[in-house]
Design brief:
Strand content: 5-15%
Shape: globular
CATH superfamily of the largest domain: Periplasmic binding protein-like II
CATH topology of the largest domain: D-Maltodextrin-Binding Protein, domain 2
Distance between the termini: 59 Å
Radius of gyration: 24 Å
Number of strands: 11
Order of helices and strands: HEHHEHEHHHEEEHHEHHHHEHEEHHHHEH
Largest sheet: 9 strands, mixed
Structural class: alpha/beta
């Protein structure tokens, strides 16, 4: 089978050196942070090198990996075959010192990269923007065509079902994971069973979307990116005022969809599980629930409507595409969907902060690159995966040749952030998160996360119980 087609169409292990141990800036002891999914197995934090452990410049950060002439690497991601080829050749060129001084991923001549012969054969599979799911991984494995590197939106299952291999030994000395260039909390998201299983590749943020066409009806012509609960309530009040005589707009769609994020955005809390009785006792969760309940009982939300009202108002259309909803919650990777229907009126706001906080707290979802447990060249696969995800030049090259809307970088490089913002239609909104990333809170919303799935089920059941729909019910 030709591995360059999409899937939809169809020992040398390094140990931690004494030098590395002396220079570790990340705690080796039990780290008191929330864990979820498979992360419940271990509380140990992954060990990361620091930049001070490197005496080499950015242009030669990767270690030398011996590659046999017959080696093959297959990458499953949303990147095209051409882009993956460029990235692999850039990796090889940097490893061999083949780039002229001052040349980086933004300026390297693509025609020059075309002339480079890789010492391994590269194949690619295509995935969705957020990666492959468990069914696809299972299909690949059963057919004997498992990729070596894969972007996934089902991290928990990829680990629990044995599709992803532990990579701690392979990345321990990789200077791309230095603690002053990566967001260590993102690394932690893919650390479980005492091992690292994934490398952060891309991140999306939980936000509020609004349709300015609807807001202008209430004489709201601009909205701030950052707002507090008082400002947010005032905005919904203005939209609700349009319904004085008859219902013309729905101020907010499904307040219940905010609940997973509210404890973090309002109270700067760690992620609180809705399905955990202990977490639900936390003040941040209880007050977040009360806040959501207040919005619903004010008649602002979809939960306030009877089934008859919904049918009459939306006439069978999806509410979020009806152009009758003012504000709704989502994540930035959904921007292309909404922009397709409201290309000139879609606006983005951060989640509301409490009134005594001036800045929002980014609430993020992170998607990893993993290495297959059946990979025959794990040294090379781990090096290449880390390079694609975390190397500054690799990220500059990706933003140069690939269109990605709604994502934040997984490294702190200012030039990478600048380029991410420059190539995105909604980049000015995304750039607002740059200075707040060290405060970010991550939620286990990667598809098929067992814990997050249970949380969503609990929230749905709880709101169905609290707001039962009857035909006689009135807002």
């Amino acid at each position: 089978m030709d591995r360059s087609v999409t899937a939809m169409e169809l020992n040398k292990r390094s140990v931690f050196s004494a030098r590395l141990r002396r220079l570790l800036c990340i705690l080796l002891a039990v780290f008191c942070l929330p864990v979820f999914g498979c992360k419940k197995v271990s509380n140990s934090f992954p060990q990361l090198p620091t930049t001070s452990s490197s005496e080499t410049p950015e242009t030669s950060e990767t270690s030398t990996v011996i590659v046999e002439a017959s080696s093959e690497i297959t990458i499953a991601s949303s990147l095209s075959y051409e882009t993956c080829q460029y990235l692999a050749k850039l990796y090889f060129a940097k490893q061999q010192g083949m780039l002229a001084e001052g040349v980086n991923g933004e300026t390297v001549d693509l025609e020059y990269l075309d002339t480079i012969d890789l010492p391994f054969v590269l194949h690619t599979y295509g995935t969705s923007e957020n990666g492959c799911d468990t069914d696809t991984l299972r299909q690949w494995k059963n057919s004997g065509d498992m990729p070596d590197i894969f972007l996934t939106n089902t991290f928990d299952q990829a680990v629990s079902e044995g599709y992803a291999m532990p990579i701690s030994d392979y990345i321990a000395d990789n200077r791309l994971l230095s603690a002053d260039r990566v967001y260590t909390e993102q690394i932690y998201q893919f650390f479980c069973r005492g091992q690292q299983y994934g490398i952060p590749y891309q991140t999306s943020a939980a936000v509020l979307f609004c349709d300015m066409e609807v807001l202008r009806q209430a004489e709201v012509y601009t909205v701030p990116f950052q707002l507090n609960t008082v400002m947010f309530h005032d905005l919904l009040e203005k939209l609700s005022g349009l319904n004085a005589e008859e219902m013309t707009v729905l101020p907010f769609y499904q307040v219940s969809s905010l609940l997973p994020y509210l404890p973090s955005s309002l109270y700067r809390s760690r992620y609180l599980s809705a399905s955990s009785e202990d977490d639900r006792k936390e003040t941040a969760y209880r007050e977040s629930f009360d806040y959501a309940d207040q919005l619903i009982r004010s008649g602002f939300s979809y939960e306030s409507m009877t089934e008859e009202m919904k049918e009459n108002f939306f006439t069978g259309l999806s509410p979020l595409l009806s152009r009758k909803v003012g504000v709704w919650a989502g994540t930035t990777d959904e921007i292309p969907v909404y922009d397709n229907y409201m290309p000139n009126t879609l606006n983005v706001m951060a989640l509301p902060a409490s009134t005594d906080e001036s800045n929002c707290v980014p609430v993020l979802v992170c998607y990893p690159l993993c290495v297959s447990s059946s990979c025959k060249n794990p040294d090379l696969a781990c090096e290449l995966a880390a390079f694609i995800a975390l190397d500054e030049d690799a990220q500059l090259l990706i933003t140069r040749v690939t269109k990605r809307e709604g994502y934040l970088p997984c490294i702190s490089s200012p030039i990478v952030w600048k380029n991410y913002a420059a190539v995105q239609k909604y980049g000015t909104y995304m750039m607002q998160f740059q200075e707040l990333m060290d405060q970010a809170i991550y939620i286990p919303a990667v598809s098929e996360s067992e814990r997050f799935g249970k949380d969503q089920e609990y929230i749905s059941d709880e709101y169905s119980r609290l707001y039962p729909i009857t035909e006689e019910e009135e807002v």
